[in-house]
Write a structure and sequence with these properties.
The chain is 50% helix and 9% strand. The protein is an alpha+beta fold. The strands form three sheets. A seven-stranded mixed sheet has the order 3-4-5-2-1-8-9. Bound molecules: adenosine-5'-triphosphate and magnesium ion. Magnesium ion (MG) is lined by residues 7-8, 21, 23.
């Protein structure tokens, strides 16, 4: 049997990027031989094994054929006769379809190295169109490598457009889509992921609520970039530049969905877009079965981001309500993430990226103030049950009034 390094490990070594996980392909072997060498079988769908020591993935060379809709609709053929070239041709991009032996000899039948140099994400063969997940994968790679100057080859974008229009994207499961979305949002330029999806028509299918923001104007005085879609991309870009976690990036993407619902006659104003957007945020959350912390933050940021921006003008009672809504007493981290999302929103405006955001420290101070109200003295005074709750609230309000006056 011959063993080759494939996929991302080869690509990233040639790009001079750190290689984190290594995928291997094994040519000329049977499942029985792999098991005899101590490899542990893992693939439910494909003949894939884990190395007994390194734990890395070793897949038997295989060919694939489309046999139905969606991801399940594949039949594969693995046997010792399948060649390396036959295995590589089923892969998505030319830069992902190179293999390397233990002497670092490159096998590159589909000119991945040429495309690496040309900075092009190009599909290997027309079979690309057989798996709709590849639309998301290519957009994710575009987000990762945009900084190196990579773009999607026009003929690949055309295929992605075909896939988006064919209805195949709907066959993707929430789990597979979310995995790609989450990884893409954590890349260096997540806004490129959304942009590429939009260019090929996939955004309209996957997240019509986000797609609808493009072409919707906002008041120029607050939003020099005017377009709500452009603004959303900038907010996401800021979130990545400030190394925000997934929760914050997800909330940034969805925070303004309500603006897509404003009747044209009301443009460029968007009265109550925060409330109106909630049902859209909920729908997107549920469509992809986003993790609970992402869902929660997106809804809270959607509802309260304008409160964040107006923090210094809020009445103490409104400030207290805000803090209560976030349960800052038990969930301080979540409030930090809310503040971060608001700040990214403010910075995601053309020409205002560097402007300071004093609201952030003001909100932090308010949270600290409310949290520092001691419960013990109230207990000692004999407050119990709901009365105790009311008394705590009164004390917090008093503290916030003093805080606001001092600020
Ligand atoms: P990453 O750095 O994100 O791990 P990768 O290229 O190694 O990138 P993997 O998901 O680990 O991506 O997959 C390994 C290889 O398997 C890819 O390089 C590609 O050749 C192939 N591959 C994975 N998923 C698909 C797919 N849906 N369609 C075609 N080829 C795929
Ligand atoms: Mg990999």
């Amino acid at each position: 049997m011959q063993i080759y390094k494939v996929g991302g490990a080869v690509r990233d070594r040639l790009l001079g990027r750190p290689v984190t996980d290594i995928d291997w392909v094994v040519v000329g072997a049977t499942t029985e031989e792999m098991l005899a060498k101590g490899f542990r079988p893992v693939g439910a769908d494909f003949p894939v094994f884990l190395h007994p020591k390194s734990g890395e993935e070793y897949a038997l060379a295989r060919t694939e054929r489309k046999s139905g809709r969606g991801y399940g609709g594949f039949t594969f053929h693995a046997s010792p006769e399948v060649t390396l070239e036959e295995d590589l041709i089923r892969r998505d991009l030319t830069i992902n379809a190179m293999a390397e032996d233990d002497q670092q000899n490159l096998t590159d039948p589909y000119h991945g190295q040429r495309d690496l140099e040309a900075r092009l994400l190009r599909h290997v063969s027309p079979a690309f169109a057989e798996d709709p997940l590849r639309v998301l994968r290519v957009a994710r790679f575009a987000a990762r490598y945009a900084g190196l100057g990579f773009t999607v080859a026009p003929e690949t974008l055309a295929l992605m457009r075909q896939l988006s229009e064919s209805g195949e994207l709907e066959a993707l499961t929430a789990e597979r889509s979310w995995k790609e979305i989450a990884r893409a949002l954590m890349e260096d330029q997540p806004q490129v992921f959304i942009q590429v999806l939009r260019e090929c028509g996939a955004l309209k299918v996957l997240m019509p609520e986000v797609d609808a923001l493009f072409g919707v104007p906002q008041p120029e005085a607050h939003h020099p970039e005017i377009d709500t879609g452009v603004h959303t991309l900038s907010v996401l870009e800021q979130a990545a530049q400030h190394k925000q976690p997934l929760t914050v990036r997800w909330a940034c993407l969805l925070h303004d969905l309500g603006k897509g619902l404003t009747p044209e006659e009301e443009w460029p104003r968007h009265i109550a877009h925060e409330q109106k957007g909630l049902k859209l945020i909920k729908a997107v959350n549920e469509r992809f079965k986003a993790p609970k912390d992402c869902q929660e933050l997106a809804l809270l940021v959607g509802e309260y981001h304008t409160h964040g921006h107006r923090a210094l003008e809020l009445k103490p009672s409104t400030l207290l309500e805000l803090l209560q809504s976030f349960d800052v007493y038990r969930r301080p981290q979540r409030f930090e993430e809310f503040i971060a999302a608001c700040e990214m929103d403010a910075r995601g405006r053309k020409g205002l990226e560097q402007r300071s955001y004093p609201q952030a420290d003001y909100l932090r101070g308010a949270a600290t103030t409310a949290r520092s109200v001691a419960v013990q003295p109230l207990l000692e005074k004999g407050f119990k049950g709901p009365e105790l709750g009311e008394a705590i609230k009164r004390e917090r309000l008093k503290a916030l009034k003093a805080y606001k006056e001092k600020a």
